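Purpose: get a first structural picture of the assembly so the mutagenesis plan has something to point at.
Setup: two entries, given in the order below. No constraints added.
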Amino acid sequence: MTAANTPSPAALSRAVAESLPLAERLFAELQARTGDGVGLTRDAYGKGEQIAHDLVAEAARSLGLEVRADAAGNLTMTLAGRDRARPGWFSGSHLDTVPRGGNYDGAAGALAALAALTALKRLGHRPAADLTAIAIRCEEAGSWFGGRHGGHLGSRAALGLLWPGELDSAVRLDTGKSLAWHMEAAGFDPARVRSGPPLLGPERVRGFVELHIEQGPVLEAAGLPLGIVTSIRGSLRARSARCLGAYTHSGAVPKELRHDAVLATVELLGELDRAWDGVLARGQDLVFTVGKLFTDPEMHGLSKVPGEVRFTLDIRSQETATMRAMEAEAQRLAAGIGARRGVRFELGPFALSEPAAMDRGIRERLAEGCRALAIPHQEMPCGAGHDAADFTRVGIPAAMIFVRNQGGSHNPGERMEIADFGEGVRLLAWFLATADLPPPAGAGFAKAG
Amino acid sequence: MTAANTPSPAALSRAVAESLPLAERLFAELQARTGDGVGLTRDAYGKGEQIAHDLVAEAARSLGLEVRADAAGNLTMTLAGRDRARPGWFSGSHLDTVPRGGNYDGAAGALAALAALTALKRLGHRPAADLTAIAIRCEEAGSWFGGRHGGHLGSRAALGLLWPGELDSAVRLDTGKSLAWHMEAAGFDPARVRSGPPLLGPERVRGFVELHIEQGPVLEAAGLPLGIVTSIRGSLRARSARCLGAYTHSGAVPKELRHDAVLATVELLGELDRAWDGVLARGQDLVFTVGKLFTDPEMHGLSKVPGEVRFTLDIRSQETATMRAMEAEAQRLAAGIGARRGVRFELGPFALSEPAAMDRGIRERLAEGCRALAIPHQEMPCGAGHDAADFTRVGIPAAMIFVRNQGGSHNPGERMEIADFGEGVRLLAWFLATADLPPPAGAGFAKAG
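Result (structure tokens, whole complex):
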């Protein structure tokens, strides 16, 4: 697809290739300046994150982009459009990390957006509306803030999604100070966040595309550099499930008189594992994880029939109904196994986080871009939470590009090849350059489920 | 069965009924004088055990029995036989407890033997050979002594079963002093234990009968006061089994790319649970316990696919072959599941303790006694270790009488009814009064396996 005022794929690819050294230099500076001896630490609303924002802002300024920070500290870097009043496209991700994390989770998306705008500017592209790279604050909120909060504090602050009082009830784990205190200490304006209209909304943002390293091994296993995310999986989680039986002597009590919490739990989890196979066989999306499973260290013993087991259940899917069906199956099985084995299961509350469907129109345009640029790719779900999900919650169409990554994420072993990153920037630049063309007939906006 | 010089069942029952108040008084004094505020504490080769030995010895002396302590501190109380040189019958159990234990585990057997001799003496019975009640030291060695030792230190010291150096390598957990030190401090003669011939052997002991509370709920569930033990189960134990997989993101990794240690372990343990059902269906004796099962508290998380699980396996049976078959099944399943699920099981070493078959001739006489005295009973295995097993290891025929007990053992909730205890004393007195009659034709001595 080429049209008036859009660069050819060949020209675009050359311009992207010329902008990659800037991204490589920024990755290297982030590595050097936010290393902690083990991994990378860019603490949200703290020194590490600020170093990253300063580096990126300085690079954007030197490229001639319009650089601003919003009241919550999110950094925007804009290539001005012909019509400044028209809602524009945003692309980016966060710059904070978990403690001792890796260099790419978050930063890859912010630098990809900056590199794409660099390439378009180099080509002399003048977009119809503003194109904005955004570096978001505090996406790793769960690692830095305790107290009561809903995570993703930078994007949720900008989108008007904070709960009443969340600026005060989110408390940084190391300092004990509130989110409002840290926002103000970093030079921003929590009072504006608290009382004004949202800093970002559909009237200003035409759509949001987030490039991110894949946090699993799917692209690596498939031999593909890029993925286009269909949906950010929701989750349904039981944090404090348990099975209560009775402690007795392991030698002196025959099977029929036992209330064995371990073997009852083993039966429940084995049945749920089989139920998972059934869901996959029906072509539905599901992942199921028992991350914690433990007898009581104060009470258990080699020669005691176990009287208690605690465990967690993490059920994730692109479909809420699939998760609810798995929860119902767990409750049904627990009741039957409990009655038959003389134990009591208490699965406890299940906390739901809704899936966030990625916008179908953007996904189709991204797939079209991959074809135009000859980039091998596949569609795939995203299993972890991302800022892109928050944009969908206020009705902003959003999508995600995954870049192949070895070593998982949230650890120093994250390993993204710069060639794969370059494919992501090519796709992103192509998309931003062509995004204001009319969407293909029949494409609609899928809202958050 | 009545014969010359043996009392009638009716006369015996009356004499036992008249000797029970003595046992009740001794139980009450033990309760009062070795209580710790929570349960009972009679520390082995310490003050609590000595209080119990002094109480019992004083009662035996006042009854006119011959009271002695051997070089290891085991207390013998003998009703002299017509032929003092002939090997005699012994009956008894230990007087020590676990810390904060109950009043009956051990003491019931020592007091039952004393009460039975009291009844026989009251009847003017003159046995063919000596009849001896024995209060054994330090059966709960695992609760009091650390270092290197093989448990049951009192009976094993008497029977010549201590390992070379065990008197020095067994070290009391609270004092740090050796078994030899404590034996000497309590007034006994570790040098004699160390160098002389065994204090007890087949040339002196015709057979050993131990009455003990049942440590499980079988008799309670069956509504029977007494059980006759067929065999003391052996055990085959893996203390440090584990499954090694790989930690990954619970949302981002599809099922086929996981190395999930929990779900692999769940499959293994579920299959072993079914294998256990199969063994029982074939009429074989087996109990199977996973007392400890835990993910790594330093590494696990709600949203991490678990990369490691540790667990224990406790396999017990009256037949070594049944235990070895279960071990082989565990290894076979672990290899197959490990290969299929991309994890590695390391079940670690299995430690074997052989079963100890109770003597068939004594068991048949005990069953005959139950019929003569109209005592409802059943045959049953014993799941825990007892001094009786050690007697079988040196070729002394041994057997056990179980008395119904609620509340398990090794805790303050042990609850034996004195009426059930009385049935045990009746059976024991009948057995001791008639034991020197010729055994029924065809009865042989089953040795330890």
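Confidence is low (pLDDT under 50) at residues 439-449 of chain A.
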